[in-house]
Known about the structure:
Radius of gyration: 22 Å
Strand content: under 5%
Largest sheet: none
Shape: elongated
Number of strands: 0
Structural class: mainly alpha
Oligomer: single chain
Helix content: 55-70%
Distance between the termini: 58 Å
Amino acid sequence: MKNDVRLAPHGLTNILGGVTTNAEVAQEKARHALLRMKSYEQWIASTSRSRIDAVARMAGSARAFYDDHVQTLTRYASGDLAS
Length: 83
């Protein structure tokens, strides 16, 4: 028959990406990002003056930007995505 559909010998491919929810993926990415983060002192010493000025304009100060970033990642890593 010309219209026969045959599966590959290894079976079907999972096109749904598993059973991990988007919230769980975000939580794991946040945990990973927190593990990789430099301390404030390391970050401020290694970043350019133009970047420091940009985040200071956006958040009021480089410290406020850093602290907000860490707080947001911590919320996501703990699973507290709603607030």
